[in-house]
Amino acid sequence: MPVSNKIFFILVLSAFFIGAFFNSGCKVSYKFQDVSIPDSIKTVRVQQITENRGGYVNPQLSPQLTDKLRQKIVNQTRLTQVNNENAHYDISGAISEYTVSTSAISGQQSATNRLTVGVRITLRDQLNNTSKDFNISRSFEFSATLTLPQAEAALKDEMIRNLVDEIFNNIFSQW
């Protein structure tokens, strides 16, 4: 190996070890893909997201939304899912809105409808005795030629994915 390559290799290796040394003592937060969780938080409980009590109710939305949120948290954080009241983070919520409206008219007829789904989430940090509430609302367009059950079947995966992503980001991202 030529001398210049050896020097370069030594410099790169030194920079790596210096960086590792300075970063090893930091105990700020756990970060992964924009996820920020204090080191002290180890467990999470995601309670069943409850149904909307007024207007139209989609009985499949609540259990599917809860299940996907639990999966995302377990798969994308280091937190352990528990089912007791002693969880460090306790997440609860309710579907607060589930409405259909006309979003576009062509001639004298509705051309596009909009399904709006809202969820109210409460995050309790039981170690620090704090609570954070936030609302998520997403709209999904569908052809007016579809019935609501047909539109729900077609939009189900997109609705769940978008709502879960939004809830997850509100809980674990610091932006």
What does this protein look like?
By secondary structure, the protein is an alpha/beta fold. The protein has one domain (about 30-170): Double Stranded RNA Binding Domain. Helix content is about 35%, strand content about 35%. The chain contains three helices and seven strands; from the N terminus they run H-E-E-E-H-E-E-E-E-H. The chain has helices at about 5-25, 60-75, 150-170, and strands spanning about 30, 35-40, 45, 80, 90-105, 110-125, 130-145. A five-stranded mixed sheet has the order 4-3-5-6-7, with helices on one face. Helix 2 (about 60-75) runs parallel beside helix 3. It is elongated, with a radius of gyration of 23 Å. Mean pLDDT is about 80; it is low at about 10-30.
Topology:
Layout: H1 3-24, E1 29-32, E2 35-38, E3 43-46, H2 61-76, E4 80-81, E5 89-106, E6 109-125, E7 130-143, H3 148-172
Parallel strand pairs: 3-4, 3-5
Antiparallel strand pairs: 1-2, 5-6, 6-7
Helix pairs in contact: 2-3
